[in-house]
C-alpha cells in the first residue's frame, strides 16, 4: 500500500473509533467504569493517566444533567459495585461543590437523603451509590476523600476530522 494512503487510513480509522472499546459513549463524552477501588485523588490521577493513552484529557465524571445521571445509573447498575466516585467535590471551599473537570460550581445535583451532610466535618468527595433501604438509588453521597471506591472516568468524544487525504 502507498505509505501516504496507509497513514491516511490509519488516522481515519483512529478518529472513527471515537470511544475506546471498553468505554461507553454518551452525547459528547466517553465514560469508563473502574474495577479498582481508589481514593478520590488517586482515582482522578488514574483517569488522567488512562486518558493520556488515548491522547485525551480525562477526569472524573461530570454528571451535569438528568440525562447523564440516568445514563450512568443504568451503566453502573450492570456492575457488582454499589459506589462510584464522580468528579464533584467541595475540597477547596466547604459547601461549594465544583466539578474536577472544569472547577465550575455544580448546577445539577442528585443528592440522596440528608446528603451532602459533611459527616464528621470531613466529607468532601461525591460518589453515586446504591443502598435501597436508605433511599439511595444511585443517588449522590458525600464521602471522606480517603474512602476507597470504584470510580467513573470521562473524556471527550473525539470529533470526526477530515481524513488527511481526500
Ligand atoms: C472494592 O471494594 C468493594 C467494597 O468494599 C469490595 O467488595 C470489592 O471486592 C473491592 N474490589 C477490589 C478490586 O478490591
Ligand atoms: Ca464537605
Ligand atoms: Ca455524607
UniProtKB/TrEMBL annotation:
Gene3D superfamilies for the chain: Mannose-Binding Protein A, subunit A
Listed SMART domains: CLECT (SM00034)
Keywords: Signal
Parts of the chain that traverse the membrane: none
UniProt-listed InterPro entries: C-type_lectin-like, C-type_lectin-like/link_sf, C-type_lectin/snaclec_domain, CTDL_fold
A Pfam family annotated for this UniProt entry: Lectin_C
Alphabetized PANTHER family for the sequence: MANNOSE, PHOSPHOLIPASE, LECTIN RECEPTOR RELATED
The protein's name in its UniProt record: C-type lectin domain-containing protein
Organism this protein belongs to: Magallana gigas
Amino acid at each position: 500500500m502507498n505509505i501516504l494512503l496507509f497513514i491516511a487510513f490509519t488516522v481515519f480509522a483512529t478518529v472513527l473509533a471515537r470511544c475506546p472499546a471498553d468505554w461507553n459513549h454518551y452525547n459528547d463524552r466517553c465514560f469508563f467504569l473502574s474495577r479498582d477501588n481508589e481514593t478520590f485523588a488517586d482515582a482522578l490521577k488514574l483517569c488522567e493517566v488512562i486518558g493520556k493513552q488515548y491522547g485525551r484529557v480525562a477526569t472524573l465524571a461530570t454528571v451535569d444533567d438528568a440525562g447523564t445521571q440516568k445514563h450512568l445509573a443504568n451503566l453502573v447498575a450492570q456492575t457488582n459495585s454499589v459506589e462510584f466516585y464522580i468528579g464533584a467535590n467541595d475540597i477547596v471551599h466547604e459547601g461549594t461543590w465544583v466539578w474536577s473537570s472544569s472547577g465550575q460550581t455544580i448546577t445539577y445535583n442528585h443528592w440522596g437523603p440528608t446528603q451532602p451532610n459533611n459527616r464528621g466535618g470531613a466529607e468532601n468527595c461525591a460518589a453515586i451509590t446504591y443502598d435501597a433501604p436508605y433511599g439511595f438509588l444511585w443517588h449522590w453521597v458525600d464521602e471522606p476523600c480517603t474512602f476507597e471506591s470504584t470510580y467513573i472516568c470521562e473524556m471527550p468524544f473525539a470529533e470526526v476530522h477530515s481524513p488527511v487525504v481526500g
